[in-house]
Amino acid sequence: QVQLVEAGGGLVQPGESLRLSCTASGSIFRLFQMGWYRRAPGKQRELVARITSGGVADYVDSVKGRFTISRDNSKNTMYLQMNGLKPEDTAIYYCNTFPSGPSWGQGTQVTVSS
Q1: Element at 37 (helix H, strand E)
Q2: Whether 10 contacts 18, CB under 8 Å
Q3: How far apart are CA 62 and CA 76, in angstroms?
Q4: Residue of 35, 68, 39 whose CA lies nearest to 52
Q5: Between 63 and which of 14, 15, 67, 71 could a Cys-Cys bridge form, CB atoms 3.0 to 4.6 Å apart?
Q6: CB distance 19 to 8 below 8 Å
Q7: CA neighbours closer than 13 Å in the CB half-sphere of residue 70
């Protein structure tokens, strides 16, 4: 079973940036399409961005042009560069395969507030 550990969240002001990372255990990470998901307070978890094993990315409309997903298969790690953060980006961010599997990590809290 692949284990996923998210990191890099924090408290930032609107317009600032954060870079999230997701490290996966196991050597088969490179075979999976992966995604970043988030759960905002009072809302359901949603897919934010996804990336194929070959690096082709796709984004939800609300983050297009601001977020960039990437991966380094040699390090079993995926990233989410978040620029121009807005208060509505406040959420717990998770990584998982796409489509998502049944097991989720702890996530990393991102809070955007002035």
Answers
A1: strand 34-39
A2: yes
A3: 27
A4: 35
A5: 67
A6: yes
A7: 9
In this predicted model, which residue has the larger pLDDT, 20 or 3? 20
The CA angle 9-6-74, to the nearest 5 degrees, is 120
**What are the tens digits of pLDDT across the range 95-114?**
999 999 888 999 999 999 99
Q: How far is Cα 23 from Cα 26, in angstroms, rounded to an integer?
A: 10
Write down the pLDDT at residue 28.
Answer: 77
Check: CB of residue 39 under 8 Å from CB of residue 94.
yes
DSSP 3-state assignment of 30?
helix
The pLDDT confidence band at residue 1, using thresholds 50, 70 and 90, is low
